[in-house]
Amino acid sequence: MHGLICESDSLTTSAARGPTTSLMTSSDLILAATAGAVCLALCATLWAMSQRRRFEDRLARLNTRARALETRLMDAQGAAEAFETAVVVLHDDGVDLVSGEDALAACAAILDVAADAQAVVVALTDADPSHAHKLKALFEQGEACAFEVRSARGGVLVEGRAAGTRAWLRLAAAAADETGLPDARRFAAFMDGLVEPAWIASADGAPVWGNAAYLRVVGVETAADAARDNKSLDRAADALAVESAKAGELRELVRWVPLDGRRRALRFSAQPLDGGGVGVFSSDVTEVEDMRDALKKHVAAHDETLNHIADGVAIFSAGRRLAFHNTAFAELWGLEPAWLAERPTHGEVLDRLRQRRRLPETVDYARWKAAELARYEDLGPQADEMWDLPDGRTLRVVRQPHPLGGMLLLYSDITGELRLKAQYNALIQVQQATLDKLNDAVAVFGSDGRLRLHNEAFETFWNVSAQALEAAVDFEGVVELCVPRLHDLSFWRELKGRVADPDPQMRAPTSGETRTSDNRIVVYQSRPLPDGATLIAFADVTDTRALQNALDDRSAALTEAERLKRDFVGNVSYELRTPLTTIIGYSELLERADGLSERSRGHVVSVRAAATQLARSIDDVLDMAQIDAGEMALEIEDIRVAGLLADAQERSLKAAQLGGVTLSVECDKDVGLIRGDHKRLSQILDHLIENALRQTPPDGVVTLSARRALGEVRLDVSDTGRGVPFHVQAHIFDRFVGRDRGGPGLGLALVKALVELHGGWVALESEPGAGSTFTCHLPETQQPGAAQPEFGF
After folding, report:
1. What is the pLDDT of residues 181-219, one digit of tens each?
2. Is residue 207 a contact partner of residue 199, using CB atoms and an 8 Å limit?
3. Parallel/antiparallel/unpaired status of strands 761-766 and 772-779
4. Distance between CA atoms of 185 and 68, rounded to whole angstroms?
5. What's the sign of the alpha-carbon dihedral 438, 439, 440, 445?
6. What is the SS3 assignment for 761?
7. What pLDDT does 183 receive?
8. Where are the alpha helices (DSSP H) in 365-414?
9. Nearest Cα to 344, choosing from 367, 317, 366?
10. Measured between alpha carbons, how far is 620 from 747 in angstroms, rounded to an integer?
11. Do 723 and 768 form a contact (C-beta atoms < 8 A)?
12. What SS3 state is found at 448?
């Protein structure tokens, strides 16, 4: 078309230039006009075809859209009809039904109005003023609403939404039995009112919705925040939701979780929901779990108590199966615990015991077993039985109906009890025979005042016969038989109070003396017995008192002799010490004098040594006399043990060197101090060292050592001498045993007395030929009595 237009333009242009070239003929003009007309017609045709194609495309699109809208409308109507809902539109001109004629009719029937949309809406408005306000707000302000109208025939669920200038209502009829079901919002409000956490979880356990308690405990505002931050009330509960979703059924779990700073037990229940997801509900079962734990502990304690009972206990259920047994039951019958754990029946237990010959022998076992099992039907009290087993044991069988059904059996091995009863009867006979052999008159009265037991001496003492005592009904009858020998009725009244008076003070033990009519001295005593009886004994002590008086006189004479001996020893020792001091002093002067021969000097040394030994012996005698008289007092002070041993070594070192003996000291660094009398402790060590030096040959060793152990300090003096014979060791610390050693034999006895005065004790360890070790065990601290008597108050 564009080419034709161009060609026409060129022809026109040529014609325009015609005057300059040549003139156009009429045929040319006609041809040109025809060509232009043809071109115009072609252009019009093409334009019309183009417009038609455009209109057809638009029409096709409109038809497609119309068909889609029709399909959507049909789907919407079908959905409304499928879900039994009616859709109503509210506009300025009124109310129209969009879809759901059947549902509208059902709603109208429930509201008891005509099946008309306008009538149904008016009925909804008149049902409740709050419904009218909600519908007005929906129509005027576009506020969504949802409510329910109830009647005797059922209920109508109303949900309103605004779209554009119109308001839409969706109505759904609910049967009378469904009117109590709340809508989503009301149910959500109800769930928020629960104090226990509840939530909806997806299939992977992530929370989708949670009530207020769940959000508060987890610490989030929405369930989406909990899922995003990976927060959870309890991971095990999330796993329970996943497990419930996979299994498609209810799952429950009890977990202890912290709630509001307290440890609470929650029972989680996970139930798959119809709309998808899993509903997880929790309930606080802390009290139930506490009671369950308490019950478990109570049952465990009950079982443990039964397990500590020596008697065999077995509980059979109502089905006659073994429900419980203690350890003593298995041991009593020799049954395997593994077999008992299988809960055998009572009959099976009896059969196994019979196979092992552990049941009483019977002629007809089947009949005996049937009678035993028939006891389950007897709900009343059952008498105890005694079973004599083939192995010689005797069992007491106690049967008792169990409160939960079944029977409780208690097996007591009374073999020992029967043996004890026989022994008790024998002991009673022995007791009677023993009482008969006593010289004292003994009688036993019961709490009722009757004479229960007496010996032959009682008959002899009061000069009554056995027949008379048996005829005496009570205490008064016995008193009538005894009054001729003892006339003091007040004495008998007091004794009666001891026998029959229930007052504990009157039944207290008592004793005393009295005189009989023949001037005998009688000692009596009463003793309450555990069974409420009272024992009364009488003894004639006339001869004993005479002998006691004689012994008292002799004791007084011995005490006076001891005093005279102590005074004599003190006076003699004092008289001997003065000349000995003079002898020792002059011997020391002569020893230092010039001009003496060696022989004379040796004599002088011997005189001084003998005088010194005699002086020490006198001091030992005086010390022993003081100790015996209780007049020696210790001057208690803190003493350094290492220094005490060093001083003792220094004092005896010269004597050790003269004898060719090595004197060494071994002392622990931590031995520290000891409380004691420095003078007396030094005296103890000097005597022990002197004794060790005498027992040790030349080239021997004497060792002083000290150590602290278990609240005491041990001082040891050991030597490598000839030792102490075994027959002498038992009496080594007795007085005057060591006369063969040149002294009066008081050295070791004085050591023992001084150590005991410090509150300790001394021990000897020795073997002949292997040396000796004397150990002084001294307490770390001293009691007040060990110090000066006047400071012991």
Report:
1. 555 566 777 777 788 898 888 888 888 888 888 888 888
2. yes
3. antiparallel
4. 35
5. positive
6. strand
7. 57
8. 365-373
9. 317
10. 7
11. yes
12. coil
Average pLDDT over residues 270-274: 85
- Find tokens 């001082």 and name the residue: 715
CA proximity to 56, closest of 64, 45, 44: 64
Distance CA 87, CA 382 (A): 80
Residue that is written with structure tokens 């029709």 in the block: 70
Contact status, residue 696 vs residue 670, Cβ threshold 8 Å: no
* Six token digits for residue 8: 């026409």
Max CA-CA distance within the chain?
A: 209
CA distances from 28 to 24, 25, 168, 611, 786 (A): 6, 5, 76, 195, 172
SS3 291: helix
Q: Residues 728, 599: contact at Cβ < 8 Å?
A: no
Contact 754, 748 (CB under 8 A): no
Instruction: Report d(CA 90, CA 72) in Å as an integer.
Output: 21
Q: Tell me the two tokens of residue 121.
A: 């809406």
- Rounded CA-CA distance 511/303 in Å is 52
CA 306 to chain CA centroid, Å, is 19
Q: 85-91 and 166-174: which strand pairing?
A: antiparallel
Q: What is the CA radius of gyration of the chain?
A: 63
Residue 144 Ramachandran class (φ > 0 left, ψ -120 to 50 alpha, else beta): beta
Query: 655: part of which helix (H) or strand (E)?
Result: helix 641-658
* DSSP element (H, E) containing 127: helix 117-127
Where residue 345 falls among pLDDT bands split at 50, 70, 90?
A: very high
The answer to whether the beta carbons of residues 431 and 485 sit under 8 Å apart is: no
Residue 507 has pLDDT above 50, yes or no: yes
Residue 260 CB contacts under 8 Å (≥ 6 apart), including other chains:
217
Residue 20 has pLDDT above 70, yes or no: no
Q: Which residues contact 271 (CB under 8 A, 6 or more apart)?
A: 244, 250, 278, 279, 281
Q: Would you say 535 and 431 are in contact if contact means Cβ atoms under 8 Å apart?
A: no
The number of beta carbons lying within 10 Å of the beta carbon of residue 34 is 10
Sign of the dihedral through C-alpha 514, 516, 518, 521: negative
User: What is d(CA 659, CA 653) in angstroms, rounded to the nearest whole number?
Assistant: 10
Residue appearing with tokens 């509980």: 315
pLDDT tops 60 at residue 549: yes
Q: Kindly report the CA angle at 757 between 792 and 767, in degrees rounded to 5?
A: 165
Instruction: Please give the pLDDT value at position 776.
Output: 92
In sequence order, the 6+-apart residues with CB closer than 8 A to the CB of 307 are 326, 327, 328
Count CB-CB contacts under 10 A for residue 134: 20
452 CB-near residues (< 8 Å, 6+ apart):
444, 445, 446, 533
CA dist 398 and 411 (Å) reads: 7
Q: At what angle do helices 678-695 and 747-757 cross, to 10 degrees?
A: 150
pLDDT at 79: 59
What is the per-residue DSSP string for 460-517?
Answer: HHHT--HHHHHH--SHHHHHHHHTTT---HHHHHHHHHHHH---TTTTS-EEEEEE-T
**3-state SS class at 402:** coil
Q: Classify residue 783 by its DSSP letter.
A: -
Q: Residue 460: what residue type? A: T
CB 463 within 8 A of CB 457: no
Confidence at residue 80, expressed as pLDDT on a 0 to 100 scale: 56
